[in-house]
Design goal:
about 0% strand; about 75% helix; Helix Hairpins; 3 helices; about 100 residues; mainly alpha
């Protein structure tokens, strides 16, 4: 197994763990953690394809990863703010119990 395959395998495992966590958990914070794991798996793919791809002096893979990290940080901040606002209203982080948005 070469380096690219190892990185892609690690990324696939990390993405699968994040997806399982986001789909099976009822706690809103654990769902956000699962989404962050999936974004980190995508970052590993960006860096792996940049490192093991065609030899170019450009750092496009690193720039994609840095942009993705910035988007993930903004998503985490907004997501936590929404969860805090919902917690203040319903006093729970259980996604099934938060039904105040139902019409």
């Amino acid at each position: 197994m070469n380096g690219l395959q190892a990185c892609l395998l690690l990324s696939a495992l990390l993405f699968a763990i994040g997806l399982a966590g986001a789909l099976t958990r009822r706690n809103a914070i654990l769902v956000l953690i699962g989404i962050e794991l999936m974004l980190n798996a995508a970052n590993i793919n960006f860096i792996a394809f940049w490192h093991y791809g065609a030899a170019t002096p450009r750092i496009t893979g690193v720039m994609f990863a840095v942009f993705s990290i910035a988007v993930a940080a903004a998503e985490a901040a907004v997501g936590l703010a929404i969860i805090l606002a919902a917690y203040r209203r319903s006093r729970t982080t259980d996604l099934d119990a938060m039904n105040s948005l139902k019409g």
